[in-house]
Design brief:
262 residues; alpha/beta; seven-stranded mixed β-sheet
Amino acid sequence: MNIADTNIDGGKGFDWGRTSANYARFRDIYPQEFYDKIISRNLCRSGQTVLDMGTGTGVLPRNLYRYGAKWTGTDISKEQIAQARILSEGMEITYDTVSAEELDFPENTFDVITACQCFFYFDHEKIAPALARMLKSGGKLLLLYMAWLPFEDEIAGASERLVLQYNPVWSGAGETMHPIAIPEIYQGSFALLYHEEYPLKVHFTRESWHGRMKTCRGIGASLSETEIADWEQEHLQLLAEISPAEFDILHYAAIAELRVVK
């Protein structure tokens, strides 16, 4: 499904379905520390029912499945959901193709609702009341994010500059460490309990970092096949010149935990 939003990439359309196969291969990269932060907050554990909005290929449900929660994952892209089902074989995880704005589970269904790497895409005027309704009393909204730091990591910065050469309107560039932005509409129905922003290193090979960059919105989800091929050739050459065979990329992660107020 092609998506266009004037607040993202200057309105240039993108489609995660175009890059789902590579997304499944190269975007399952969160280190254990990322998941430990969630579990340490007593979230997504045994006895809890959890909805993961914008689940993509099911990275969050799959990696937290062993902690015992009952998971449902939803995403607007049918291709992403197809990959999630393949990668979750043998796990009792329910997946559905539906946008966040169209979610309509019964009242008091979930203990926790998660949104990882996707919260800023949503129409919050529509979803904030629905999330409050679908959460049980005292239920939690858990927002998660991770991004490389281009001004502090040489390889990440060089790769990002090359993306911008091919897609100058890409608005995913220039990340710095900051809290997750929570729109004002949530203030009436949710109370912010906790937030944290912290640096962490993520290990890559040249192939896996190239794959990670290819699956970013600015390349694989939005450029033409010819443009992607040209970018790939140039990026692989760039990595051969500036990076060892394996390396760490400096990222930051952010977590925000909100409690529904009913």
